[in-house]
Fold these 3 entries.
Entry 1:
Amino acid sequence: MNKRELLYGTGALTLLAGGAALFGGRAMTSAQAAAEGSFEITRSEDEWRTILTSAQFSVLREEATERPFTSPLNNEKRAGTFHCAGCDLAVYPSDTKYDSGTGWPSFWEALPNAVGTKPDNSLFMRRTECHCRRCGGHFGHIFDDGPPPTGKRHCINGLALSFKPSQA
């Protein structure tokens, strides 16, 4: 190995290590935190699999993302409240829902003390992940391109929610 190969190899390793530190340093997953008892409601993986559909489990416990424009909740326009599909915590009032055009249910604000957040540096992006503050179920992400009055867009997987219409 000559000096040039050594220099290039060392430079490549430095870039890889720096990229991993910058983009890969993801916080503990919601499922890991729940397993450690960081949330009010904790269940084993088998218990969650019994309660949730396989698609809901993938989103809520493994932080997957559903395909855009596939959730029936994307078109839900009735008055009511959106709840966590994992533990039934009321999370989003229907009057904060809006059509962001992204293909996922979007809200400009959650109910007080309903959503927790953490940094998400995956996929070479810096985002804010949001989850159920009670069971740790992954909802989606919060962006700074929403409408007034908050300017926030909670871009949420419909599989992570259930809807309960208001009683008339």
Entry 2:
Amino acid sequence: MTRSVADSPRDDPRRAPSIVAPPSLVELAAATLRRMIVGGDLLCGDRIVENRLTRELGISRPPLREALRMLEREGLVHQVPRKGAIVTPLTLHDIYEIFTLRGEYERFAVQLGVPVRDASRLRRCREALGRMAEAAEADDEPSFAEYSFEFHVSIVGLSGHRRLEEAYRSLQLQMMLSMAMNRRARERETLTEDLQRHRRLLEVIEGGDTDMVLRELSRHGDRTFLDGIESRVQGHTDVALEWLRQERANSQQLG
């Protein structure tokens, strides 16, 4: 008897669901290292000591080294001859480029998306803030950093501009390196206090005044680590030093 298309195993509702393979040891090691970097446990320029990590993660060198190669492809880790793997260092010019581009993306998104006319976009912001609150309650700093980035992505998403959001996401890992440096510079600020700054920004967005949102973004508090930054990083181009001088002048006016 010929089987019909409807009788094929593919369409059989009794067919067992596909089994999804668990993450490999390499993927788990890469995820752990990624969280250590974005959470500020490993900062830009820090050497990654393999002996210590194999002991702390409970894995052998081969999966750890493969995980490091994965992070190197992502741009989070850099191999230095005779030194080994280090967290990718950022120069002052790198920081200048990251922050100015991020700022332009966010300003453009706010100009396009505020006041918010699509309730689902605003709901996305609230959900991201809710996940930040859960991470703050659990004192989970790496997750808080990830959700903080997603909150800012949701703000860019208010624009309804898909390519703008994709461009913003392309900076994710570089921005999270900067955010990790910033969190370390604001060690006295608790996650709950950090959450309050983001909650305040969302309240202003909900108010619907574009200019007020732009002003709130300009004082959002993500530039604390620029204090004394020129003594901690290299790459002091003229344009980066002028930008840093202007940032400090603006901070004094806002403060």
Entry 3:
Amino acid sequence: MDILFDCPHCGQELEVDSDAAGTELNCPTCNQRLVVPSLDSPGVRVSGAAPPPPLHHAREAHVINPIAASAAAKEEKHFQVPIRDKPSESLISKPLKPLEFAAKDSEKHIRVKTIRRIDCVEVGRDKFDEHVSEFLAKVGEQNIISINTVTYTYIDIGSQKLLTDFGVLIVYKG
């Protein structure tokens, strides 16, 4: 076990083995001769033990809140709420109504039309865009609920091969 004590000449804290109590040695800081005190001498502490609290703290026992004493609690915060003359714009747009509710909004029924590209090929000419445009003009933009692209495979009758093609699926009120 080690003992801690202060040099009587310079005040340097020294630590020596407790077996050296009563022996003389030179202070490594001021190089003055001193006698190592015994364990029961005043001002001597055991290594690893907490130093005794000062006398004025012994009389005033109070609990310190670590959160209130932290640096974050001492930081001043100045918040301001923005003031506007008109309502602010909405940053979140409302989602579209589901198909079931869109159908209930009017007396028209929901219908589905699928247009395949292979059905629009006439004598080597692809008229897919024309057919889709004609159908959308006939239905009207206000009645269209959704337009989805589809990809499908079919067996070609002439070559007996599996071919992939595309089309559109149009959901509308009509």
